[in-house]
Amino acid sequence: MDLELTGKRALVTGSSAGLGRAMAKLLAAEGAAVVVHGRDGERAEGVAREIREAGGTAHAVVGDLSDDGGAEHVARAATAHGPVDILVNNAGFYRHLSWAEATPDEWRDTYNVNVVSGVRMIRHLVPAMRERGWGRVVTIGGGLASQPTGALPQYNATLAARHNLAVSLARELKGTGVTSNVVSPGAILVDATRELITGIGPGHGWGDTWEEIRPNAVRAIAPNDQERFGEPEEIAAAVAYLCGPRAQYVSGATIRVDGGLVRSAF
Ligand SMILES: NC(=O)c1ccc[n+]([C@@H]2O[C@H](COP(=O)([O-])OP(=O)(O)OC[C@H]3O[C@@H](n4cnc5c(N)ncnc54)[C@H](OP(=O)(O)O)[C@@H]3O)[C@@H](O)[C@H]2O)c1
Prior knowledge:
Elements: E1 9-12, H1 18-29, E2 33-38, H2 41-53, E3 57-62, H3 68-78, E4 86-89, H4 104-132, E5 135-140, H5 153-172, E6 178-185, H6 191-200, H7 210-221, H8 232-243, E7 254-257
Parallel strand pairs: 1-2, 1-4, 2-3, 4-5, 5-6, 6-7
Helix pairs in contact: 1-8, 3-4, 4-5
Bound molecules: NADP nicotinamide-adenine-dinucleotide phosphate (NAP).
NADP nicotinamide-adenine-dinucleotide phosphate is lined by residues 14-20, 38-40, 43, 64-66, 90-94, 113-114, 140, 142, 185, 187-188, 190-193.
């Protein structure tokens, strides 16, 4: 199926690594010109180069989205070669903290990076999409938004906020040709999650090696019908669908890509 992304320009925040990298690569393979973004210039340029070497169009933009100036710089650089039609708000971070460890400062920092950064980019880029009468905002949420665990409370709450603001934005964009939707991953294996799971595995009695830890970690923290962690490319596929014209009638929706981890029927 042609997703009809040729001629569109997409900014994927946090695409120097992990899920964002897979999204940037797939959007480019589907014909979009992609702006790769991260704070680490070498990694961001590396992903852009990979895309170009595969025949796609990409350039890298570097900046920290946790303050207004950094976000403005990223928005300006991303639009330097033309308007952004597609914004994927993906940049974020998670630290495996308990309630006791998650200080008020940690809550504030996590909310700022995971929620307010996305709001900053929406404020910079959506008005022009509105004027052109076409655009896409895809927000990366997560299963922990609706099914939080006792750990990472400061992170779970930011995912819930992302789901909420994305639906609010869809209502605000009524009749404009611009849509706002959420892709909600379960537990997806990227370097950062593998590192986290390997770190806490022995303490939880899941084993010592990755081969031992992996199945036990799936059962303990992400039990799902596919009995495995997800792959970044599986998240990218849902994002790419929402970014194209074929998804015009999808508004304020959540596509869960979690193997059935979230148990709700709706
Ligand atoms: N992996 C999962 O299982 C999972 C599940 C649900 C939701 N998510 C969400 O998916 C998104 C990507 O997660 P991931 O697992 O792919 O993480 P990751 O591999 O650590 O990648 C995070 C990306 O965000 C960027 N980033 C972090 N803080 C930033 C900041 N202040 N300003 C600008 N860029 C920043 C990083 O760029 P630099 O390192 O170059 O700065 C990197 O490109 C996150 O928002 C996360 O909440 C992930």
